[in-house]
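Follow-up to my earlier ticket, as requested here are the two runs.
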Amino acid sequence: MAKMPQACQDMINNAYAAAFSTCSDGVPNVVPVSMKQVIDDETVMVSDQYLGKSLANLRQNPHVALSVWDDEGGFQVKGSATYENEGPRYEAVAAQVKEILSSMGYDFTSKGVCYLHVEEVYSVTPGEHAGKLLA
């Protein structure tokens, strides 16, 4: 496992949305996700409200990537994911997601949670270090 730099963790937690990618049978799928949070420097949680194709891909191939950026630059985090849709850890995330989304006027719930176990972190900041392996 690799450890995400603090700047990467902060960006994941503070960015409105990120691009979450999966792949199955050589066909990539990328979706925007907004309900994501760093659990620790080696783990990112992505809540599943609408991950139909992504979840099907994840069940066939656990390798995923999450990209996040702002006006200054960004990060790509790659690793393997596990999925939970029951148990205390899932219940805690589902309650948090429901509270946040209902406060925004949405009636969506978390169907499950992907836990991305970080294996590599790359820079996606333009310039000479674009694509550089950071961790």
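Run two:
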Amino acid sequence: MEKERNSLQVLVLTGLFAAIIYIGIWILRIPVPAMVGRPFIHFGNTLTAVAILYLGYRNGMIAGIIGLGGFDLLNGYAATSWLTMIEVVVVASILTLVYKGIHYRDSKRNIIILGIIAGITKIFTTYCVSIVEALMVGTSLKVAYIGAFVSLPATVINSISTAICTPILYFAFKDATRIILKKAK
């Protein structure tokens, strides 16, 4: 898809993924108590990883920024939505570098590895974001480190679901697209 990143089809798919990401957070979110922030379990990260792998770096990242960042802006997380958007850029960059390193071969093994990498990256970025959020409200750096660490359970659950669901959804989207395009001819 990367070669055709400005085609009407890819732009429509980018918007569709952005909407699916937003809805994937809005419909199914389970709040988890934490010392820092208001984390919850959701499928937005998984869908963002799928968008990045399916649409390529630029369009997948745009879909993730619109979906995750848009959710934050419209649902009480506006003050930290910029951090969510930076997280999407980091995840997109790392996934794309690794995907490029394996020459964009989307074998089951490679996509599973990429799903795991997306989950691990999200744990790291969320830890950093939690530190920044704690500092934004005036805590000391030491307390921010500890609070961010104690607040990781929701992120770990989200990351595990990302590692498991990314390959499943990636191949489902790929197969569905193949069927739809075949019928369109």
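The only thing I checked on run two: The chain has seven helices and two strands. Let me know what else you need.
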